[in-house]
Amino acid sequence: MSDAHLLTRPAHELGALLTSGEVGAAELTQLHLDQIEALNPTLNAFLHVDADGAMETARSIDAARASGAELGPLAGVPIAVKDNFCTLGQPTTCGSRMLEDWVPPYDATVVTRLRAAGLVILGKTNMDEFAMGSSTETSAFGPTRNPWDTDRIPGGSGGGSSAAVAAFMAPLAVGSDTGGSIRQPGSVTGTVGVKPTYGGVSRYGVVAMASSLDQPGPVTRTTLDAALLHEVMGGHDPHDSTSIAQPLPALSEAARRGDVAGMRVGVVKEFGGEGFEADVEARFHEAVELLRGAGAEVVEVSCPNFLYALSAYYLIMPSELSSNLARFDAMRYGLRVGDDGTRGVEEVMSMTRGEGFGREAKRRLIIGTYALSSGYQDQYYGSAQKVRTLVARDFEAAFAQCDVLVSPTTPTVAFRIGERMSDPMSMYKADLCTIPSNLAGNASASFPVGLSSDGLPVGIQVIAPPMADDRLYRVGGFLEATLEKQWDGPILDRMVPLAGTKVVAR
Questions:
Q1: Where is the active site (predicted)?
Q2: Residues ≥6 apart with Cβ < 8 Å to 261
Q3: In the chain, is it the N or the C terminus that has fewer CB atoms within a 10 Å radius of its CB?
Q4: SS3 sequence, 307-341?
């Protein structure tokens, strides 16, 4: 089997090849490390690559398999981890100078579970600073580029993870989603991105942005891969007070089912029209017709309070962010500026935060601090929480009529790097469709459904009630299998990495 063929195979197929002995974990890991070395100078998807640690893990998996040990379906498969997950022995910077070179003394629960399942951690992926962004342009270490067009963004905040998977630098990756940071990058890079039910995957050891919104999830190239990785990552964790104490549904079984007959699918009325590109809407409606043709009942559903979700989010998120990022005070860990013995604590703290945080981080910190300030908390933060309740009620009413809801994942395809940096509102609107699910805490995912006339990926968002994550995979599995037949192969097989230079569409 050729190296190129191995690189482009989905994780579940690689797991089967590893189990059968047709390929070794060390061989597979080295192949991906070579791909990273060739493409990362162009794409900037990885901030840290742990080549030695990855090869050591891979060799240990090969040895365990040779000794007859029973290993999981993904044991020996390489994976990339977003750089806001604490990793013992590897830096965790959150894309910020504030944590440059900081190495955590422990692993996040998700990372612990990856290691226990035998996954090989290649390194840490680039992200918007402290997950604040929709384009991976606010990273202190430079933007990540979209493998489909290196002049365009790969989405954010987890653009490094999505770009790594899209460019075959890793078959799997881990991300976190606060307002769309897994799903929006998935849409614009042609990958699968899943935001599990809030509390379905542990947040312990994930550097907090907005604690009531953050949720880790999988980034993959196929629906089944996402389900298998979700099963590894998910489940109750006593270290996380928000973790749900009940088992996950049968996710990989749902992904394999590939049948939507009898499902009730609600098309969200509010997500379309002005501001949505024609190609995005065209691919979305084509996907809806596939669902209808396969026996799903499709109805239009109105969720009127979704129109206010963006505004509510941009008060709740910065408020929680302001509280969480107060810990970066130059006193305990991370960056410290101006501590020459002549300055007091407050001055050192001010200088450090002024130099350590980037422009977007400061913008959101100021908004959040103001929204929580005396005399304004009820007016802003309190009012936003009331809107959040209304959004959740809209979902409850919709799910009384439907099994899942669908919408475009993003209003547009990937925009050009630098295009929206001077227009924050335009940037924020990239998460227009994804934010409601974070406010309500339900499950949501983006699956690729085709290309625009410019040859750029388009995604469909599927939304399910809390702890009904299996419905996402049932719909995603059907769409993937149906579209692969139409396209004569997976969407990402149309991309050919040109070693050392760039990635182009075939």
A1: 82 (charge relay system), 157 (charge relay system), 181 (acyl-ester intermediate)
A2: 294, 295, 296
A3: C
A4: HHHHHHHHHHHHHHHHHHHHHCCCCCCCCCCCCCC
Q: How confident is the model over 429-462, as pLDDT tens digits?
A: 999 999 999 999 999 999 999 999 999 999 999 9
Lowest mean pLDDT among 341-355, 447-461, 478-492: 478-492
For strand 495-498 and strand 264-268, is the pairing parallel, antiparallel, or unpaired? unpaired
What's the order of all strands across the beta sheet hosting 192-195?
46-49, 120-125, 78-82, 172-176, 216-220, 192-195, 443-451, 457-464, 404-408, 264-268, 297-301
**Do the Cβ atoms of 444 and 183 come closer than 8 Å?**
yes
The percent of residues above 90 in pLDDT, for the chain, comes to: 88
428 near 364, Cβ under 8 Å? no
Q: Token pair 């040990």 is at which residue?
A: 69
Q: Name which of 415, 399, 437 is nearest 194 in CA terms.
A: 437
User: Which tokens hold the place of 455?
Assistant: 């040859």
How far apart are alpha carbons 326 and 389 in whole angstroms? 27
Per-residue DSSP letter, 150: T
Nearest to 403 by CA among 241, 264, 243: 264
Q: Is 30 helix (H, G, I), strand (E, B) or coil?
A: helix
- Report the C-alpha gap between 23 and 14 in whole angstroms: 8
Residue whose tokens read 């406010």: 439
Torsion of CA 402, 405, 406, 411, to 10 degrees: 140
Which tens digit of pLDDT belongs to each residue from 118-166?
Answer: 999 999 999 999 999 999 999 999 999 999 999 999 999 999 999 999 9
What is the signed CA dihedral for 373, 377, 379, 381, rounded to 10 degrees?
120
DSSP one-letter string for 228-281: HHHHHHBS--TT-TT---SPPP-HHHHHHH---TT-EEEEETTSSSTTS-HHHH
Residue 107 · residue 12 · CB < 8 Å = no
**3-state SS, residue 73:** coil
How far is the C-alpha of 136 from the C-alpha of 121, rounded, in Å?
Answer: 21
Cis peptide before 426 (omega within 30 of 0): no
Residue 239's contacts (CB-CB under 8 Å, 6 or more residues apart) are 109, 202, 204, 205
Query: Using CA atoms, how far apart are residues 144 and 258, in angstroms rounded to an integer?
Result: 34
Helix (H, G, I), strand (E, B) or coil at 206: strand
Go through the domains of the chain in sequence order and give each one's CATH number. 20-306+388-505 (3.90.1300.10), 309-382 (no CATH)
* Amino acid identity, position 393: R
Determine how many CB atoms are found less than 10 A away from the CB of residue 470.
20
Within 409-452, strands assigned E span 443-451
Dihedral angle computed from the Cα positions of residues 114, 115, 118 and 121, in that order, rounded to the nearest 10 degrees:
80
For 81, list phi and psi in degrees, rounded to 5: -125, 130
